[in-house]
Amino acid sequence: MGILLPYVLAFGLWGDSAPFANRDGLFLLLFNILNGHHHERFWFVAFPKSLICRCGCAGACALMPIWEVLAWSFRCLLCALFPDERHDGTPFASSNFRGDAKRAKRAARKRKLRCKGGVVQKRGDWEWLRDILGLEGWSGRGPQGFMCFKCPCTKSLMKQFGMNASWRRRIFNQREWFFGCSSREDLSNALCCFCRGS
User: Fold this and answer.
1) Hey, where are the domains in the chain?
2) Per-residue model confidence as pLDDT tens digits over 108-164
3) Which strand ranges, in their side-by-side order, compose the sheet holding 8-20?
4) Secondary structure of the chain in the HEC alphabet?
5) Would you say 18 and 26 are in contact if contact means Cβ atoms under 8 Å apart?
6) The pTM is what?
């Protein structure tokens, strides 16, 4: 139908955690291209859970910088322009980080990237999504005070099992859920890949 150009890429993110050693686990984040002929997954980051700080931030100190870089990368890809600054806003030309002088020269050419694309899918089990996205799980304090991201179920309503349960009368769509999340200060930057810029 000619809706997608040949060089528009749809990306999927896949995350999981797994135990390793006796007392540690591994966080893993991979990406793959959903359209085209290349379906293998590529590593973005992997690190042991023991590296996550215990300051009470629920891992935000360790995870937010990862999501900031990933969200920045996908925003650049969506615009199809080589960036002229780092993810933290520092221009490549004034940065002392290794490789940034080369990046500054490339950015000065103002050339477009050969493709554009964005994240259209995020996959992972509930535990991984809860931990990585900073959701509250089954504690009943999640976005908008509900236990679930698709319905208004709370701990007290969880005891209603029938098909006529009050929490079944309304189902949230993705837009409503993202809108409700966007007002949260503690929202993970992981959602920036999908719903909001920064």
Assistant:
1) 8-80+115-193
2) 998 888 888 888 888 887 777 776 666 556 666 555 566 666 677 777 777 777 888
3) 42-48, 24-33, 8-20, 116-123
4) CCCCCCCEEEEEEEEEEEEECCCEEEEEEEEEECCCCCCCCEEEEEEEHHHCCCCCCCCHHHHHHHHHHHHHHHHHHHHCECCCECCCCCEHHHCCCCCHHHHHHHHHCCCECCCEEEEEEEECCHHHHHHHHCCCHHHCCCHHHCCCCCCCCCCCHHHCCCCCCHHHCCCCCHHHHHHHHHCCCCCCHHHHHCCCCC
5) yes
6) 0.69
